[in-house]
Write a structure and sequence with these properties.
There is one protein chain. The protein has 64 residues and is an all-alpha fold. It has one helix and no strands.
Length: 64
């Protein structure tokens, strides 16, 4: 702000916009990582339940 005596408000606005956008991007990145972790866990649970169902079907076929 010292280098530009005439446009202190413009420089202040750019600095605040830079900080706001940077925080917004970091927040979205954090939320995307968190959401991805939850979705991976959900996929693992679904995969395990499908394997259990397949094993159950195989046991039923062997019994018949």
């Amino acid at each position: 702000m010292r280098s530009d005596e005439n446009n202190k408000f413009v420089v202040s606005f750019i600095l605040m916009a830079w900080i706001f956008l940077g925080n917004f991007i970091l927040l979205n990145l954090f939320l995307a990582i968190l959401l991805d972790a939850f979705l991976e866990e959900e996929d693992e649970i679904e995969g395990e339940s499908i394997e259990i169902e397949k094993m159950h079907i195989q046991k039923m076929e062997k019994a018949n």
